[in-house]
Amino acid sequence: QVQLVESGGGLVQPGGSLRLSCAASGSLYSTYTMAWYRQVPGKQRDLVAVIRNSGSTYYVNSVKGRFTISRDNAKKTVLLQMNSLKPEDTAVYYCNAERVGAVRYNYWGQGTQVTVSP
User: Fold this and answer.
1) Which of 10, 42, 94, 106 is surrounded by the fewest CB atoms within 10 Å?
2) 3-26 pLDDT, tens per residue?
3) CB of 21 within 8 A of CB of 6?
4) d(CA 88, CA 61)
5) What CA–CA distance (Å, rounded) separates 90 from 17?
6) CA proximity to 80, closest of 97, 91, 94, 90
7) Three-state SS string across 2-40, please?
8) Is the pLDDT assigned to residue 31 strictly greater than 90?
9) Are 57 and 49 in contact (CB under 8 A)?
């Protein structure tokens, strides 16, 4: 079982920066693939960035070069540094933990609102 708690959202002007943090509790955190998703009301939840337990990362095209995902297995945290924010980045951001093996484990945080507006 993994519990996830996001923080760091807020209101920022276009071009500004925010850093989201996801604190995890539970066992075997380092074996999970961690990811950030975002969701706008009325639309599906979309993947933003992934970091695997190996440290390899993946970003969707719309955030490449602007967002950076990182993890600290000792502190059981995953960060999303968001720079050069745009109004279209406005969404609720969710932290996700997944481990796939004989059994698939998948956990979500409660989400944190990011609003990019003048």
Assistant:
1) 42
2) 999 999 999 999 999 999 999 998
3) yes
4) 13
5) 12
6) 94
7) EEEEEECCEEECCCCCEEEEEEEEECCHHHCEEEEEEEC
8) no
9) yes
